[in-house]
Amino acid sequence: MSDRTNPGTSLRQLLLAVGEPLLEPVAGSLDARVRGVGIFDPDDDLGSYPGEVVLVVGARGREAVRSVRAAARAGAVAAVVKPDSRLDDVRAAAEDSGIALLTVGPNMRWDQLQTLLREVLDAAAAATSDTDGGDLFALAQTVAVLTGGSVTIEDAGNRVLAYSRSDDEIDELRRLSILGWEGPEQYLSLLREWGVYQRLRSSEEVVRVEERPELGIRRRLAVGIRAGTQHLGTIWVQEGAQPFAERAESALLGAARLAAVRLLRRRSPSVRPREDLVAGLLEGRISADLVAGQLGLDPAAPAVVLAVAPREVERDRPAHELHQLEATNIVSVHATSFRRTALVGTLGSRVYAVLPEVRTSPVPLGRQVVAALHRAGLRAQAGLGSAVPTLAEVVTSRSEADRVLDAMARTPDRDLATIADLRGEILLDETLTLIEANPQLRDPAVAALVAHDADHGTELVPSLLAYLDALGDVRAAANGLHIHPNTLRHRIRRAVAVGGLHLDDPRERLFCHLQLLLVTR
């Protein structure tokens, strides 16, 4: 049963800590607070599961439907089932009952899952009397994805605050650290003897700890979490079966800067949440001076906005929220590695990074972010606005980045672009949208061509558009349409007659071209 005094952690953070695809959200909100985990007993009429995730053991089909409904009545916030052919019925029961539904793979043992969930909840209770522990678990998992290792985040006293799930075999140091929620003294003494802690506390550099097979210690990367000269903790990454990723050290530096912000926020809970400040700055609701003052930035410095959007917004809200949080962490790690003062926030389904003191579009950073998202299984596109002179003008850079993403949505083969790359396409599209929204700007001559094609099965509109796109080069346009040049000449003459066009007038020709682009887009 749950500890009623335990504030718990959100279901979303629990899933991030345990990880997909081990548990997959199927229905319901991920905002509920989880205070415990239990095995659901359908024969216990007096059972009570307030705030718990319940494991529906051994139930299938109609029995699972009844169990999920009963669990909701007993106060559970989520039910876990093993999927079968009746999963849609179970999902419907969960939605009707207002309980979240999760599925677990058929090969996962229930006792193992219960132990894992309890470990995560105990970690949240022990390490997070504040609201950021779940964030640290999510960060640990993100760093694990980016580095290819197993991650542990510790405070300055070597107490474990969060860790990533691990599919690889872990060594004795990691196992004992996680089980005891602090590094075992015999290993800590060795690390001190080797000078590891001195190096971690005296610089921002990534420290390499070579493998010691005779001691059961695998190769590690470590970096200190610092705020100025103050040492706040350490991030450790143990190498698994595969070598570390190519940019593991860069990702680790960014993660340390991000972790410093989250650890400091614990100490000053009254400070306005950083995410609110970033969102307000991007929307123009909060002054740049206020943001700069609270976050220690120079409001007069230039800045650039990087925007990231999923290629497809998932209809399933829980899955979308989980993936967006994972994407936000990945963007944050890379952005803070690139610029210590980077600000990251979300608006709608998009993730934004404000990069202060940057005077040109950082295309290499954009490539790194997109590549990291793709490695994590998140299909996304990134757009870069232009550099603006001051922090107060990031709304302009954000607007440009949004316009780039809007344009890229029509070109799915492209995953990164700057406003300079697509300026012509963007301005043309916005011009066409303006014409479309104002009926008085529509040309009746082009409307006549559209009607003629519809009534007679002709192809005057695409033929005339190809001719104008080719700047009047009949042979080039005909080749593009796979027709004889004489056939195209006939169609152009027919279009001129039907629409009463004057293609020898450059102004009318230009406006006709725009109208044709509008009706064919």
UniProtKB/TrEMBL annotation:
<protein>
    <submittedName>
        <fullName>Transcriptional regulator</fullName>
    </submittedName>
</protein>
<dbReference type="InterPro" id="IPR042070">
    <property type="entry name" value="PucR_C-HTH_sf"/>
</dbReference>
<feature type="domain" description="PucR C-terminal helix-turn-helix">
    <location>
        <begin position="460"/>
        <end position="517"/>
    </location>
</feature>
<dbReference type="InterPro" id="IPR051448">
    <property type="entry name" value="CdaR-like_regulators"/>
</dbReference>
<dbReference type="InterPro" id="IPR041522">
    <property type="entry name" value="CdaR_GGDEF"/>
</dbReference>
<dbReference type="Pfam" id="PF13556">
    <property type="entry name" value="HTH_30"/>
</dbReference>
<dbReference type="Pfam" id="PF17853">
    <property type="entry name" value="GGDEF_2"/>
</dbReference>
<comment type="similarity">
    <text>Belongs to the CdaR family.</text>
</comment>
<dbReference type="InterPro" id="IPR025736">
    <property type="entry name" value="PucR_C-HTH_dom"/>
</dbReference>
<feature type="domain" description="CdaR GGDEF-like">
    <location>
        <begin position="292"/>
        <end position="406"/>
    </location>
</feature>
